[in-house]
Design brief:
seven-stranded mixed beta sheet, D-amino Acid Aminotransferase, Chain A, domain 1, single chain, 705 residues
Length: 705
């Protein structure tokens, strides 16, 4: 690795710190990360061993053995990582209290039991040293690139996502249970031990760390404890009084504090100036740190409306300095960027997605979506249970609705006028699955349907359509966890065609008989080894890697035919390669072209690819399926989730991003944070390709050869 400057392995470093900003912002020169609620930690990996060191230089290595083992496994060279450890509470969300309980354990037996009971995760967000080279003088974005190339996410080690849209990420972070966001200037270097304006943190409430220098007694039932006396160190090394903090305590907290205070009692005040003394004040050696929320600093240098939040054993009391509530003005984006940030989330039918998300935060009984009232029930119902091995919290009906609303403007163009095949799990994925193609009862007035003639029944059938955001929300309310759509639409805006109902003759000339894309289903039959006999392959890295190779080979063939293609994960083990085409050819012709391409690739790579329909003949190969190009078949919609553990999402990708992609990255819990990235499928269907012309060109090329 030629990046960075040579240096000896740094045995000790201090983390870089962020300054406070009041409001979230967008700026093209910055990236934004969720602000985690945990213990900041540097990880030193050297010679196959790994040390976890806190901000105050304390060793945490033995307390988190799973994190240590997994992080050591990815450190192929000597490395120093910057990151944060969080713990998940019983509700699957970050819990600082659960983390403190983990960090307070002493015996190996207690730690081993806690490993099984409390999930902890190390989120990496910076790489400071690797292989004898100092990376701290490189730009932040370059360090992130090196970090992502090195670390493969696992159950206890994750990469912290960064996003261009700080305003949207701030909202998403608060909804997920994080504290806010940290903005980082893309060109910034890493400044160990410094609080730099190149990093700005925006939190939901103002809070900071303060040294505890004493406590006072209270009155009545709170006689044994009234308030904390807190302060900060000035540049001359003197402890300056900041406030008496009397709020935020329950009896259990008071019990813990008094126990911690007992060995620290001293005779004199540790503060430099005279402190207003309340009845029964007890002075303490300044060795404990409290995190305190407050409204602002007064002109006299004291805290307004302070409330105790928690002790911070991970913070060195000698490092505590005054942190103003807004010392740095947030950068202002140029007018064009500001306009884009306010309009991006608007739904396809004009609904204000951000306004709808704000309404959902109040957990209403119904919401107005584009002028339509959608009734909501049981928003806390768990559709996907928590996954401890991935540190993923449970996902509820409300989470699903938020995901669909957030991604609606990207999903709806691919759903419009397409008949749907739906899979419902009204009680969550542990309950009964219901396949639904046709309306089963009276529909809300905003839900559209299409009539399509059934040749097998010799009669018409009605199919559900999703042509507005209200319908998308209603589907989630009905327990629809998987949305599959046909490859053709019931209406063609460019060509006037016959109705799809009434007769077989009418159906044959209707728009629904002419697909607007050609589909290739790339389905690896490479097994993980943990499947039960007769079961389909489970997701595994080797299988997906082979699927990606086959997809790239397929793209090369399509490129040779001058056919542009797009790709997405299936949400399961494979990939979907899609070729947008003008809807001028029937399904039989399109399927024939796809079959020819697939069998050509099978002949080129017989050891890796098969088109065999027999499952037994697919083992160890990638099944390249052209048979989905049939009227009535459907595939999972872009950005739609699957009814599988973890709530995986069918994720559209740019071809350049396919190599680094892994399906485990794309879930309801993670996809929204990628919202500000450009949509790789945005223009795919705006330029439908002439498949007939491509075939004619290919035949002419073959004749010339």
């Amino acid at each position: 690795m030629a990046t960075g400057t040579p240096e000896p392995f740094p045995a000790r470093l201090l983390p870089m710190m962020a300054q406070l900003a009041k409001t979230p912002f967008n700026d093209p020169a910055w990236l934004f990360e969720p602000k985690l609620d945990g213990y900041r930690m540097l990880a030193f990996a050297r010679g196959g061993e790994l040390r976890l060191v806190s901000r105050r230089g304390l060793a945490y290595t033995r307390l988190f053995p799973s994190i240590v083992d997994e992080l050591a496994a990815v450190s192929r060279d000597d490395c120093v990582f910057d990151g944060e450890i969080i713990a998940l509470g019983a509700d699957g969300k970050p819990s600082f209290n659960a983390l403190q309980n983990r960090a307070g354990l002493a015996s190996d037996a207690e730690i081993a039991a806690a490993e099984r009971r409390i999930t902890t995760v190390f989120f990496c967000f910076d790489l400071l040293h690797r292989g004898g080279r100092n990376l701290r003088t490189l730009p932040y974005v370059e360090r992130r690139g090196l970090l992502h190339a090195l670390v493969t996410p696992s159950a206890h080690v994750q990469l912290l996502h960064a996003d261009d849209d700080g305003v949207a990420l701030y909202t998403a972070a608060l909804e997920t249970g994080f504290e806010g966001v940290v903005g980082k200037r893309k060109a910034s270097i890493y400044r160990p031990g410094q609080r730099s304006p190149d990093w700005l943190k925006v939190k939901h409430t103002s809070s900071a760390e303060f040294v505890i220098g004493g406590y006072s007694k209270g009155e009545g039932e709170r006689e044994r404890f009234g308030s904390l006396v807190v302060g900060v160190w000035d540049d001359g090394g003197k402890l300056r009084y900041a406030a008496n903090v009397g709020g935020g305590f329950d009896e259990a907290t008071i019990d813990e504090l008094l126990e911690r205070f007992a060995p620290l009692v001293v005779a004199r005040s540790p503060f430099a100036e005279k402190v207003p003394v309340r009845a029964g004040t007890t002075w303490l050696a300044p060795e404990l740190v409290a995190e305190v929320t407050f409204a602002h600093w007064t002109e006299g240098g004291h805290l307004r409306a302070p409330v105790f939040l928690r002790l911070r054993d991970d913070v060195d009391p000698r490092s505590v300095r005054r942190v103003d509530d807004a010392p740095v003005a947030a950068p202002q984006p140029p007018p064009l960027a500001r306009k884009r940030a306010t309009t991006r989330a608007a739904g396809p039918d004009g609904a204000d997605a951000r306004g709808l998300l704000a309404a959902l935060a109040r957990r209403p009984a119904s919401v107005d979506v584009g002028g339509h009232a959608v009734r909501l029930t049981h928003l806390d119902r768990v559709y996907w249970p928590a996954l401890a091995d991935r540190a993923q919290p449970a996902i509820t009906k409300l989470d699903l609705i938020r995901h669909l609303v957030t991604m609606a403007d990207r999903m709806m163009p691919h759903l419009r006028n397409r008949p749907l095949t739906l899979f419902r799990w009204p009680s969550g994925i542990g309950g009964r699955r219901i396949l639904q193609k046709h309306p089963e009862a009276a529909l809300p007035p905003f839900v559209e349907t299409a009539t399509i003639f059934s040749e097998s029944k010799d009669a018409d059938d009605d199919y559900l359509l999703c042509n507005n955001l209200a319908t998308l929300v209603w589907l989630a309310e009905m327990g629809v966890l998987e949305i599959h759509a046909w490859h053709s639409r019931v209406r063609d805006d460019a060509v006037q065609r016959s109705p799809s109902g009434g007769s077989a003759a009418s159906l044959a000339t209707s728009a629904v008989n002419f697909p607007d894309y050609m589909l290739f289903d790339v389905d690896p039959y490479i097994y993980s080894g943990s499947e039960k006999k007769g079961r389909e392959p489970e997701p595994n890295r080797a299988g997906f890697a082979q699927g990606k190779r086959v997809a790239r080979w397929l793209k090369e063939v399509l490129d040779g035919m001058r056919l542009a293609s797009v790709v997405k994960t299936s949400g399961k083990t494979g990939l979907h390669v899609v070729v947008p085409i003008a809807p001028t050819l029937g399904y039989d012709v399109v399927r024939g072209v796809a079959r020819t391409i697939c069998r050509h690739l099978e002949g080129e790579h017989p050891d890796e690819i098969t088109t065999e329909w027999s499952t037994g003949k697919r083992t160890g190969k990638v099944f390249l399926d052209f048979n989905m190009n049939v009227r009535g078949k459907s595939i999972i919609a872009p950005y739609a989730p699957r009814g599988l553990p973890g709530a995986p999402v069918s994720m559209p990708l740019a071809w350049r991003d396919l190599g680094a992609a892994e399906p485990i990255e794309f879930t309801i819990a993670t996809v929204a944070s990628r919202r500000s990235r450009s949509d790789p499928w945005a223009a795919a269907f705006e330029r439908p390709q002439n498949l007939e012309a491509a075939l004619a060109s290919l035949r002419a090329s073959d004749r010339a050869a």
